[in-house]
Amino acid sequence: MGIFRITTAKLAETQRCVPQFSAFLRQLTEGSTDLKAILAAKIPKEQERVKAFRKAHGATKVGDVTVDMMYGGMRGIKGMVWEPSVLDPDEGIRFRGLSIPECQQQLPKAPGGTEPIPEGLFWLLITGDVPTQAQANAISKEWSERAELPPHVVNLLNSLPTNVHPMTQFSAAITVLNSESKFAKAYASGVHKSKYWEYVYEDSMDLIAKLPVIAATIYRNTYKEGSGIGAIDCSKDWSFNFSQMLGFDNPEFIELMRLYLTIHSDHEGGNVSAHTTHLVGSALSDPYLSFAAGMNGLAGPLHGLANQEVLLWLIKLREQVGDKYTEAQLKDFIWKTLKSGQVVPGYGHAVLRKTDPRYSCQREFALKRLPEDPLFKLVSDVYKVVPPILTELGKVKNPWPNVDAHSGVLLQYYGLKEMNYYTVLFGVSRALGVLAALVWDRALGLPIERPKSLSTDGLMASLKYK
Questions:
Q1: Which residue in 27, 203, 318, 330 has a CA-CA distance of 20 to 30 Å to 158?
Q2: Same domain for 265 and 334?
Q3: 3-state DSSP percent of the chain in helix, strand and coil, to 5
Q4: 303 belongs to the catalytic site
Q5: In this predicted structure, what is the pLDDT of residue 27?
Q6: CA distance 329 to 314
Q7: Residue 367 belongs to some domain of the structure
Q8: pLDDT, tens digit, for every residue of 10-51?
Q9: Considering 206, 286, 356, 404, which one is annotated as catalytic?
Q10: How far is 272 from 75, CA to CA, in rounded Å?
Q11: Is residue 94 part of a domain?
Q12: Nearest alpha carbon to residue 40 among 459, 455, 460, 443
């Protein structure tokens, strides 16, 4: 079946009149490369499923809130719906039910490649279906066609001093892109709320397409004296074009970017960048403003900057022990870090209770391609000694490494050494998950988010505490 378009009204008519609608929907999903048409077919069914579920269980309690949760950053409170991914404490992240190894196996790849292309993951995140190669390729082509930046955004990026942090530049450019928002224009014109998701979808596709161009421009301006990013090849995938625009043509680096942009895409909805995008979007801010807000959260050292913190710590460790260290030297440095009141960066996670699968897949990538790299060897040896020490300490619920413990080492090996830029890469990837979720927020008609807060005095009074 070739590419075709079908209107929402026509779908509704078909659903009312044709008994074989389910077979039609399955055929549409499996054969079409038109992602928006597939969503238009799926959304009415999901709206009805959620409506029936809320009618049956709207008053059902799903958890209890403790005082520690309220003072502890709302850790563990079940308080939002997030469709693209779920984080299991013992299994790690699952994208629409698929683990990272399953995604590596099942999702489409570039010709000759071994890692999934992010286009395929985005299709999975937004539809719940594993795409065909043709469907993933259609997204690659569409993103290439939508990638051009308006002149005023290019002028903004080229006018910013190079001492402005890359994440500040990234957020500013995304915010200014809000001038192109189809959702904002449709809302101002009075479009019916049932159509909101369609315009959020269009904005999201435009934004994802343009992010590598923004990010590459920032990199070339800040670190490569403003040299141009070159043209996009519409026959290639998103990660290939991004790597080329950055100035990297090593096939291994391009494969790393495919893996990196896939595994950093989503980590359910409670993390700062995801929750912020959802929260700002709930006020019906357009996807550009919502995502820019999320990126301002990602820029924090407790979130997206963490991989940079890990790398700085590893470099400091290596400077002290050299490359011919003993296990005793590593343990001594780690204990000194802990006794000084600092943490071992890259270890522990608010939810996970095992080694982060995102760490594991990067480790497997490194074992195949750079097993003798001194910094990778150091990461591997730290992996052997840190968990037992943190377990012995007795204060850490999760002594295992997370994704940040590994990603910076790989980027360093392939020559992308500018650590201040790493969070921009993270941000390009994170768009896939949070914007897929934003489309569903509007499709399901989720309201503005507004939890109830209490003062300390009010909370104490409610518990009759004196």
A1: 203
A2: no
A3: 60, 5, 35
A4: yes
A5: 55
A6: 13
A7: yes
A8: 444 444 444 454 555 455 556 799 999 999 999 999 999 999
A9: 404
A10: 12
A11: no
A12: 443
